[in-house]
Amino acid sequence: MVCFTLCIVQYTYVKANYGYKGRNVMNRVQKIAWSFVITISFGFILSCIAIAILYFKVGMPKALAGLGFMGIAGLGGFSPLIFRKDKGKVTLDERDRLINRRAALAGFGASYLLVGLACMIPFFILGPKASISVIWLPNIWLGTFMIAFFVHSVAILIQYGLADKGEIS
């Protein structure tokens, strides 16, 4: 799995630097978005696998230790350091700002939806007189940030993909 992810990252990097006919295929924002999508997906998949394995070995409360693999998603935060700004070139124009704004709104909407679901699903399942431990609040907070960054990155990639196919931004 790690090998597959590294191959995808290398392929993306090669295509970005030596794209078709010697031109860049992806800009810096797209590279950072791919990095976030890969790291968050990889951390989520490993966490699910670890929780499933630990559930059968040690039971449910201790199985949540598998969420520690979500720390891999934090490696995406190093993307702006890895993919530095090109000197002497215009890095963002009006279209890029519009794409980023739309993606940020999509990320906000997804995180707001997650908070709403995290509040209302227990209400309907447990009933109005039940109580929930406050230990779940940091998990909800972490989940909202993860979903906001993931949806923001996917929205950026989709919008740049549509623009490259002749769609109007």
How would you sum up this structure, described in words?
With about 170 residues, the protein is mostly helical. It folds into 2 domains: about 1-85, no CATH class; about 90-169, no CATH class. Helices cover about 70% and strands about 0% of the residues. It has helices at about 1-20, 30-60, 60-65, 80, 95-125, 135-165. The longest helix has about 35 residues, at about 95-125. The chain is globular.
Outline:
With 169 residues, the chain is mainly alpha-helical. It has helices at residues 2-18, 28-58, 60-63, 79-82, 94-126, 136-164.
Descriptive keywords:
single chain; 169 residues; mainly alpha; 2 domains; 6 helices; disordered N terminus
How many strand units?
Answer: 0
Mean pLDDT: 79
Order of helices and strands: HHHHHH
Give the N-terminus to C-terminus distance in angstroms: 35 Å
Based on CA atoms alone, the radius of gyration comes out at 19 Å
> What is the beta-strand fraction?
under 5%
Question: Sheet bearing the most strands, described?
Answer: none
Task: Give the helices and strands, then pairings.
Elements: H1 2-18, H2 28-58, H3 60-63, H4 79-82, H5 94-126, H6 136-164
Helix pairs in contact: 1-2, 2-6, 5-6
